[in-house]
Amino acid sequence: MTGRTGLVIDLKYILDIRNFSNHPLADKLVKSIDTIADDPEITSVVEAIGGIEPGYSYTKRCLAAGKNVITSNKQLVAEHGTELLALAKQNGVRYMFEAAVGGATPTIAPLRTTLAAGKVIAISGIVNGTTNFMLTGMLKNGMSYAEALSVAQQLGYAETKDPSDDVDGYDAGRKLAILSSIAYGMEIKPDDIPTDGISEVSLSDMKLAAEKGGTIKLIAHSEQSEDGNVSAWVHAAYVGENSRFISVNDVFNSVHYTCSNAGDVELFGRGAGKLPTAGAVMADVIEASENSDNRPVLWTKQENPFKYEVPYRYFVIKADGTSEITGKMTVAERDKMLSDGIAAKAYIVIDE
Fold this sequence. Notes:
The chain is an alpha/beta fold and 352 residues long. The protein folds into two domains: 2-106 and 274-290, 3-Layer(aba) Sandwich (Rossmann fold); 118-270 and 304-350, Dihydrodipicolinate Reductase, domain 2.
């Protein structure tokens, strides 16, 4: 890293409340965030705890002390990013989180740099490597949902105790909230985004989708209307044979931006695993070290913008086991079709 960047970055402290007395870096271990925040030699801090606390309190303490904070904690960014970005701005430092979305796929940096001169109109993508790995296994290897989840857990892609963050779509919802907040310049909360995951996707659903030439993927999508209102969702969707996402398999992520100036911009890369995430964290550490200039706040809190509904076509699975693709309909029309028993399941169709 020094040879490529010219930077010498020294690791001074590791904060962990557990006892690692036999660890090779035991001499760097500390128990209190104050040791780090009060040290004038520290310029940047990496928060990789996960969840809200104590990462939230630690982040505020370090930002207030004039330290850059780099994180991979998507839950913290999605739920408290507005406050923490403002606090960083107030103290002349950076709050950076490239690793929170997409692993090694650089999804945030383009929004802050090359695409910032224009307007991002829509975001669509596969942003959870775990569920994409599972759905690929179901499609290619004929696995059931339970079998695909078991393999993902054995490989470390899914949590063994509680995989709900991935399989129920919460992880993808947080990532979409972060990307949408940056793209549209307003706070988008995960709780505002209709979200479900892949736990109801069966092997028979995958086979029916394949018969139509497509497959099923967990898709995160948002778009902004001309008057500034936003539509956003995370759902298992039918991906048609002409879709850019149909060939995105295993743990790979793909994000597509529709832009006023740049047109279509696609980003692709590995989205799950320790090393991709670590690489993205270090990229932010390097950027913070190279350029400590305070950046503008990426988004601000605004009145609820979710007043925009987009009709979609649906891949419908009927009670008799047959399937069809409908014309465009609203969410209310889809729900009535399901409640009337006309369809057992309905997947949004993505065919671009």
